[in-house]
Amino acid sequence: MGRTKIVGIAGRFGPRYGSTLRKRWKEVMEKRYADHQCPFCGFVGRVYRISVGIWACKKCGATWAGAAYTPRSELSKYFPTVIKR
């Protein structure tokens, strides 16, 4: 492998699956692994995904429901919900 300057994270697929699907997948995964801001404490970089749609902040300990690949969906911007366990 090694030469993934243009294809980035999708370079692990090599020539398989077609360029359009690899570009779409790359776009989604770059959004998922980007640094996100916690909606509760405002800290950037310590937000991680627990499961599909469930996100948490390592700094303040808040857990909330978001989108599958981003911590804030369009609806969650208007109706923030904290999951209390």
From TrEMBL:
Q: How does it assemble?
A: Part of the 50S ribosomal subunit.
Highest taxon in the source lineage: Archaea
At which positions is Zn(2+) bound?
A: C38, C41, C57, C60
Keyword Plastid listed? The answer is: no
Protein name per Swiss-Prot or TrEMBL? Large ribosomal subunit protein eL43
What is stated as this protein's family in its record? Belongs to the eukaryotic ribosomal protein eL43 family. Putative zinc-binding subfamily.
Report the GO molecular function annotations. large ribosomal subunit rRNA binding; structural constituent of ribosome; zinc ion binding
Q: Recall the taxonomic lineage recorded for the source organism.
A: Archaea, Thermoproteota, Thermoprotei, Fervidicoccales, Fervidicoccaceae
Coiled-coil parts of chain: none
- GO CC annotations? ribonucleoprotein complex; ribosome
Species for this entry: Fervidicoccus fontis
The record's keywords, sorted A to Z, are: Ribonucleoprotein, Ribosomal protein, RNA-binding, rRNA-binding
- Record InterPro entries: Ribosomal_eL37/eL43, Ribosomal_eL43, Ribosomal_protein_eL43, Ribosomal_zn-bd
